[in-house]
Amino acid sequence: METTSRPTVGRTEPSPTPQVWAQAAARAASLLVLDDLASRTPLVHLIDILTCLASPDPGTRAAAATPYGRLFRDLASAGHDLGDAFTSAIATSETLIARQLRGSSLALPDAITAAAIHDLEVTAMLTALGATIPDAITAALGMEPAHGGLPPLPESRVQTEGSGGPAGYPPMPTPYLRDLAGNAGVERLVTHYATHGSGHFARARAFVWRGVTGNDHLSGLDPVMVHDPVRAHDLVGTVDARALLRRNTANLLRGRPANNVLLYGDRGTGKSSSVKSLLQEPDTAAWGEDPDAGPVPWGLLRLIDVPKSRLGDFPTLITCLRDRPERFILFVDDLSFEDGETQYKDLKAVLDGGVIAHPENVVVYATSNRRHLIREQFSDRPDPLNTDVHGQDTVQEKLSFADRFGLTLTFLSPNQEDYLAIATHLAQLRGLPIALPDLRRRAIAWAAWHNGRSGRTARQFIDDLTAELG
Predict the structure, then answer these.
(1) What pLDDT does residue 55 have?
(2) Sheet of 221-224, strand order
(3) Residue 351 contacts by C-beta under 8 Å, 6 or more apart in sequence?
(4) DSSP 361
(5) How far apart are CA 37 and CA 158, in angstroms?
(6) For residues 328 and 206, what is the distance between their CA atoms, to the nearest angstrom?
(7) What is the phi/psi pair of residue 151, to 5°?
(8) What is the pLDDT, as a whole number, of residue 161?
(9) Which of 107, 181, 387, 405 is 20 to 30 A distant from 453 in Cα terms?
(10) Which distant-in-sequence residues (6+ apart) come within 8 Å of 316 by Cβ?
C-alpha cells in the first residue's frame, strides 16, 4: 500500500494516499454477488467516506467527517464494530448467493463461488482499512489525533456466542461468520443461509403482512422484532393436540408433506399460543418420535400473521415465498365469517383447488372458536317439503371450507383440576411465594369472578398475583 508519513504528537504513522483511498473505493463498488450490501450499513457510508478521502481537494477530504458520523452512529446504535456490521449485513442481505440456494441443493456454481471469494476479500480489506479512517479524516480537518481528533469506530457490544438475543430471533454475528475467507468461508456462509434463512427473512422470525406496496412484495412484510415469548413448556394441557401440531411443523421443516391446520376450540385455551410457541423451539432440535430423521432445522421457520381482511392477497404472498429456503406458516388468528362475507373463498382456493400449485414450503395455520368457520342459519337448511334438488348447495359450500384443512386440532376448556394445574405451573415458573392451598383457593375465586376456567384466565390470574406479590 502506497503511503505518506505525517507528523503526530510523539509518533509518526503512515497514512494512505488519495490514490489508495480511490483504489479502495473502486474495490468497495466492485462487489459481484453480495450486491445488496451497496445499500446497507456499513458499505453505503464507507463508499462515501472513501470517495471523499480520494479527492485531491482538501475541502472534499474534510467532508468525509459527515458520512463517518453516520457510520459511527449506526454502529453504536446496533452495538456492532465494523466487522460485526459487515457480518450482519451479509447474513441479512438478499444476495445472489442466497438466491442460488432457493431449492434443495446447497452447491454453488464455480463462477458464483469465485465471485463470492472476491467479495469476501473486499469486505475483509474494508474492515482492516476502517482502523485508519479516523486519523485520515482528522488530518484532513487539520487536527491532531491527540488534541480533539476523531475517535475510532465503536467496538462490538454484541454477544458472539450463541444467539446473542432472546430465543426465537435470528442469530447475531458469530465467530464462524467473522472469518469468511476462501472456499471454506463461502461454505460457512452457504450453510448459514440454508440454516437460518437470508435477506428480508433473516431479520426476524415473525412478520405481519400489510399488503403489497409498490413492486417489492417483500416490503409488505413488516418484521416483528419483539414477539410473544411463549414456549412449549409454558403451556399445560392439550398435550396431544400440541404434539400433532409440532410434528406437522417438523414435517414442513424437513421438506416432507405437511397439512394445513385448523386449531378449533373454546376461547383462551391456548390455540394461538401453541402456534407462536413453535418459534421458540431450539434451533436444530431433535424430534424424539423419529430419531433416524435427524435434527429439525427450526431456524428456518417463519411465522407470517395475515389479517382476515388480507386473505385476498394469499396468491401474491405465496408467489413471493415460493422456492425460498425458509419454511413459512401463514397464520390467520380468530378466523370466522359472518353470513354474507365471502373472503373465505380466497383462502379456500389457496388451501386446495386453486390453479396455482401449493408450494411445499408454505402451510396455513388458522385458529377459530367455530368448528365450521362460517355462521350458518337455519334458513340455510333445505325444506324437506321443497323439491329443489340444489337445496343443499348452500350448506355444502360452507362446510367444505373447513374440510380443506388437512388437520383439525381441538382445544377444550379445562376442568377445574386442569385449570388449577395450569395456574400452579405458571406460579412455579415465576417463583411466586404463595402456599399451594392459598393459590388454589384464589385461582378458583378468580375464575368465578372473571372469564371462567381457561388457560388465558389462569395467566391473567397469575399476572395479577405477580403484581400483588411484587
Answers:
(1) 92
(2) 221-224, 206-209, 301-305, 327-332, 362-368, 261-265, 407-411
(3) 260, 364, 404, 405
(4) T
(5) 20
(6) 10
(7) -75, 160
(8) 42
(9) 405
(10) 212, 217
Beta strands in 109-230 (DSSP E): 206-209, 221-224
Strand partners, 5: 14
> Does residue 223 have a cis bond before it (omega within 30 degrees)?
no
CA dist 343 and 360 (Å) reads 24
Quote the Cα angle for 29-33-37, to 5°.
55
Predicted local distance difference test score (pLDDT) of residue 452? 79
Residue type, 140: A
pLDDT at 8: 40
Return phi, psi of residue 297, to 5°.
-80, 70
CB 236 within 8 A of CB 423: no
- Tell me the H-state helices in 79-181: 82-91, 96-100, 110-129, 133-140, 175-178
Split the chain (470 residues) into runs of 10 and give each run's mean pLDDT: 41 67 91 87 93 92 94 90 88 82 73 92 91 91 76 76 41 59 86 82 89 75 81 78 92 90 84 89 58 75 90 84 88 75 64 67 87 49 51 51 78 85 87 89 88 83 87
Q: Which of 425, 384, 42 is nearest to 237 (CA)?
A: 425
Place of cell 469468511: 180
The distance from CA 268 to its chain's CA centroid, rounded to whole angstroms, is 26
What is the model's pTM?
A: 0.77
Angle between helix 416-430 and helix 436-449 axes, rounded to 10 deg: 120
Predicted local distance difference test score (pLDDT) of residue 313: 85
Distance CA(346)–CA(312), nearest Å, equals: 5
Residue 295: per-residue pLDDT: 80
Say how far apart CA 324 and CA 299 lie, in whole Å.
14
The whole-number pLDDT of residue 174 equals 53
**CA 116/CA 32 separation, integer angstroms:** 7
Q: Supply the DSSP string of 23-67, one letter for each residue.
A: HHHHHHTT-SS-GGGGGSTTHHHHHHHHHHHT-SSHHHHHTTHHH
Q: How far is CA 376 from the centre of its chain?
A: 38
Residue 406 to residues 24, 258, 351: CA-CA distances in angstroms? 57, 9, 9
CA-based end-to-end distance of the chain: 63
Q: Identify whether the C-beta of residue 329 lies closer than 8 Å to the C-beta of residue 304.
A: yes
Cell of 397: 359450500
367: phi then psi, degrees, rounded to nearest 5:
-115, 150
Residue 48, C-alpha cell as written in the block: 462515501
Cell of 89: 449485513
